[in-house]
Amino acid sequence: MSELVAVSTLVLMFSLFLGLLRVVRGPGAGDRMLAMQLIGTTGVGLLLLLSLMLDQTALIDVALILALLAAVAAAAFTSQELETGDD
Amino acid sequence: MLTAHWLYGMSGCLIVALGLRTALLHAVLLQRLIGINVMGAGVFLMLIAVAYRGPGVAPDPVPHALVLTGIVVAVSATALALALGRRLSAEQDDE
Amino acid sequence: MNTTALLALDALLVFSLLSLAVAALATHDARRSVILFMAFGLVLAVAWGRLMAPDVALAEAAIGAGLSGALLLAAVHEQPRRALSGDSRPGHNRAHSSFKVALEWAVTLLCVAVAGVLAWALAAAFDRTPKDVLAQAVSDNLAASGVSNPVTAVLLNFRAYDTLLELAVLLTAVLGIMAMGPERRGYRAAGPVFDGLVGWLVPVLILMAGYLLWVGAHAPGGAFQAGATLAAAGVVLRLAGQRSAGLPPWRLLHLTVAAGVVMFLAVGLSLLALGRPFLGYPPAWAGALILLIETAAMLAIAATLVLAFLGGRPAESHLNFSKEKRQC
Amino acid sequence: MIDALSSLFIVAGLGFYLAGSIGLLRLPDLYSRLHALTKADNLGLGLLTAGLALHAQELLIALKLILIWLAVLAASAASAHLIAQHVRRRETSS
């Protein structure tokens, strides 16, 4: 079991790396943000596997915070500021 | 043999250098700030690498406490710098 | 097998961090730079988890991958032209190109030298077998600290002076921000999808902040992580078009921002009055006093970070209660 | 038995993760990449959390894992929608 977890962690890190390539390549800001969502979910999975592998249950909390804050980042990207005079 | 802390610590040094170069050379305020933040992250990486004691061994908590507060202070300082920059450009526009 | 997998994981993580740093810093497109910096923060949070620093990972997940990204994105939206694009500076174009190249080389060499010195110092630190004087002192005295999470014990008991000063630094920063001028523009009211998101995300973030504050005594968590999570709730409200961003009414705002420092000083001075050293908690009371200080510090940190996102002094009329009072 | 089931879930979850990342890289435009993102990725995390929850020693941990999956499910559906809408609005307005 522990070997499976170790190898799975590595595979997931590779998957995250593939997602990062899209973040770097873009081409548009929207493409990058969409890829950020994917690497966010991959990061969540990676932290969960690491929590089992390193025997650190607290990493589950980190995964939850990461999941919630990915949504905040997306919100910040898409929210539209008021124009002057919109007030 | 413990290679992990070497790997993370030395890349921390590299990241400090990369961030410092941008912070000094870039013409745009926002990207200079990102450079400073990247530099800070490099320092944090060095500190956490020093605290690391291998898998299954409890790391040194003192650097962790330093980095934890460092992260919060860094984001506040960044916000202050952005506010300063905004004020500066507002003054320039008035001229 | 496990160590090989771990080593490969480390190599891939470090490579990702380095290439993201290069990519984020190399581009001249500010928005691309910010998004890549957010990705850098996300990978960094995973790295902290890998290096068994869950306290730091919590703060990085909340701030590096979320809040500071939101802050920088707002700055990109806000000022696409002047101050952020240095090209408008007078005399900039006239600068001698050969001088510029020489300067770039000099700075690059300086940075290489800095990296070399740091690497040398780090190698010296690694070469000596860690004596762990401090770590040993922490684990020896943990039982008397009132909490069982060593990082919280360091922050709020053993090195409480440092944390008090750090909160004072945050207070100075936020006062500076508020002195710099009025807040940035607000946001348009959220559409239905965003509204649905806000409806559950904000309560969950607030609950999570309370949980992190409570759990910080015996597991990773504490005032800094809880404050950042609470601030994220405020930022989401602001992004959804709520001008107050969940901040307290104007009169209470000053008190909230200063709450951490005030509570720290109040506890420290009361102890001094009772004949104990400043911030030298009696062991029986340490747990309760730490929770008291942490609660105040969480509120102060959250308010500070929300004000940092607003980027200036909030308009008095937007903080709900004062508005109602005036209408009465 | 539970170990085998748990391993099966984890491996299947990884398959979806990889498919998602490869789809994100290979698919031609933003709208088709939405598929890769929202479908494969959430299934990937769902199977992974299911596998890990089977392995969890405490009930609280299993509950937290399920909570994480639900949070990601709701958050990433909303964020992907918002990002796509944002891009579309820009394209049509310019």
The string of secondary-structure elements of chain A, in order, is HHH
Reading the helices and strands of chain B in chain order gives HHH
Estimate the global geometry of chain A from the Cα principal axes. flat
Strand content of chain A: under 5%
Q: How much beta of chain B, percentage-wise?
A: under 5%
Q: Largest interface here, residues on each chain?
A: B-C, 76 and 96 residues
Give the biggest sheet of chain A. none
Distance linking N and C termini of chain B: 63 Å
User: Kindly state the mean pLDDT of chain B as a whole number?
Assistant: 87
CATH topology (level 3) name of chain B: Helix Hairpins
CATH class of chain B, named Mainly Alpha
Provide the domain count of chain B: 1
Number of domains of chain A: 1
Total E-strand runs of chain B = 0
Q: Give the low-confidence spans of chain B.
A: none
Class based on secondary structure composition and strand pairing of chain B: mainly alpha
What is the 3D form of chain B?
elongated
> What count of helical segments of chain A does DSSP give?
3
Question: What does this entry look like structurally?
Answer:
The complex is a heterotetramer of chains A (about 90), B (about 100), C (about 325) and D (about 90). Chain A is mostly helical. Chain A has one domain. Chain A is about 80% helix and about 0% strand. Chain A contains 3 helices and no strands. Chain A has helices spanning about 1-25, 30-55, 60-80. The relative contact order of chain A is 0.12. Chain B is built from 3 helices and no strands. In chain B, helix 1 (about 5-25) packs antiparallel against helix 2. Chain B is elongated, with a radius of gyration of 17 Å. The mean pLDDT of chain B is about 85. With about 90 residues, chain D is mainly α. Chains in contact: A-C, A-D, B-C, C-D.
Name its key features.
heterotetramer; A: 87 residues; mainly alpha; 3 helices; D: 94 residues; elongated
What is the secondary structure topology, with strand pairs?
The complex is a heterotetramer of chains A (87), B (95), C (328) and D (94).
Chain A: H1 2-25, H2 29-53, H3 58-78
Helix pairs in contact in A: 1-2, 2-3
Chain B: H1 4-25, H2 29-51, H3 61-94
Helix pairs in contact in B: 1-2, 2-3
Chain C: H1 2-26, H2 30-50, H3 54-78, H4 97-127, H5 133-141, H6 150-158, H7 160-179, H8 192-215, H9 223-239, H10 250-273, H11 283-310, H12 320-327
